[in-house]
Amino acid sequence: MIDLVMVGMMLLSVLLLFAAIPKWVGRADFLVTLKRLGISGKLASLVIWILPLAEVVVGIGIWFEELRMLSLIGLFMLTASFLWAIVRGKSKKLKCNCFGSMIDEQFGWKTAVRVILMIAIGLFVLYKKSIIPNTSDMELTDLLWSFILSVNLFGSYVLANSLAAYRKHV
Length: 170
Description:
Radius of gyration: 16 Å
Distance between the termini: 45 Å
Number of strands: 0
Low-confidence stretches: none
Strand content: under 5%
């Protein structure tokens, strides 16, 4: 039976993986955003590799019982850095680059809500971690339904964002 914890874990994984890949592909844009946030050149050149790698590691690690606690700690560290970037970027009206060119948005309340939602889901998974079965014990159909639901939720967010941007320009 599919449960809310599994959907939450899958949603976190989907968000983190869909955030990491465009950052690697669009490193130049991501680097510009980091420098405009006030991160120095050498550190920014390191962050364009480390941040997406951390997102991938956390997004995958959450599924392994042995790594779940470390992954949740990593998630909270990532979200703290995201909140820092939102505070810095909002006043400068910077492009977020959270999902690369997939979503064209500036740092602001929408990004803050998304990060707070990630924190809430992470806390929920942390609270329920003792009842989460090992990944190998999970039903494949439940995993697939969780994945499909999570991708659809993310896709709906992307679509809503695109429609809002379109309405601004019409």
